């Protein structure tokens, strides 16, 4: 198959980790006789430096014409520490999500046997955890009206959701639950927020169409606790934009490191794949970042956008084998680790070996 992939490495460690994903994709392309064409675009602080815009028109056009987008990370401390900055790298990511209609962010969380003792949480609590978070990505407080009073002393961000925005992601979550253990948990704050009450209403109605799915509702504060108290209880978690942002960082601790988690951001026409971690500026250029989140995002791309489940499975298997042989980046094992590129090499070698034996 021939596929065009837009590569948006972005800021901080983004370029390093994305390079490793590309390395692995090239092995897959060679072994399966696919043709992957990569074209780079600017986004984030690097785009502001080069063009003045965090999501330039050229990048938008590149995304539109590509079969899928592989994105690295966004963010730069020179903006974080300046609340008065009017142009910010994150605006690029939010604009991209909105303009491309990437309304569903899918973040799978599961444990790896070889990393079970690397998590700060007890092994018997986290072992066997396997759930997926469906985070709404183009609505809510991220995109509501933002205001500051004339004297600068009052600020507000409004949280808005429409029934159809909730329905379209809820449908994906229900459909996914049907392919898994048929359990769906809506995480909200319906005891306080009107938007959450709308979410509950919509999900309750939709549940009638999925009678096999066991649905439950959990307030986000309780969910934050349940995630580390008993993460095995979850199968599919459905939630709004900001709650999803927060609980997935928390959930990454179960896996062993924030650097491990991939994600897919999908819409009706486009799809983007990105590790859930940020730009980790203090590690940039040091060859210490964990590339697995990016490599697994590439695997999700193969599976979800290119209908290549076997190729995707080989990548996840290669990651598991590499980890179980004890190879680790510093975030996973500070006592014995290899670099970003070396981790990319190891995983690419494993993919190659698996392909040689099985393709
Ligand atoms: C994420 C990130 C982004 C978000 C930031 C960089 C704007 O934290 O993808 O989870 O909040 O959505
Ligand atoms: Mg986040």
Task: Tell me what the structure shows.
- The chain has 359 residues and is an alpha/beta fold.
- It folds into two domains: 1-103 and 268-359, 3-Layer(aba) Sandwich (Isopropylmalate Dehydrogenase), CATH 3.40.718; 119-145 and 159-255, Isopropylmalate Dehydrogenase, CATH 3.40.718.10.
- It has 13 helices and twelve strands.
- The protein has helices at residues 14-32, 45-51, 57-65, 77-80, 89-99, 123-126, 163-179, 194-208, 220-229, 241-255, 292-304, 309-324, 340-358, and strands at residues 2-10, 35-40, 68-73, 104-110, 130-136, 146-148, 155-157, 183-188, 214-219, 236-239, 262-266, 271-275.
- It has a ten-stranded mixed β-sheet with strand order 2-1-3-12-11-4-5-10-8-9, with helices on both faces. Strands 6-7 form a two-stranded antiparallel sheet.
- A hairpin with a 4-residue loop joins strand 11 and strand 12 (271-275).
- The chain is globular, with a radius of gyration of 20 Å.
- The two termini are 15 Å apart.
- The chain binds 3-isopropylmalic acid and magnesium ion.
- 3-isopropylmalic acid binds at residues 74-75, 90, 93, 245, 276, 278.
- Residues 245, 249 line the site of magnesium ion.
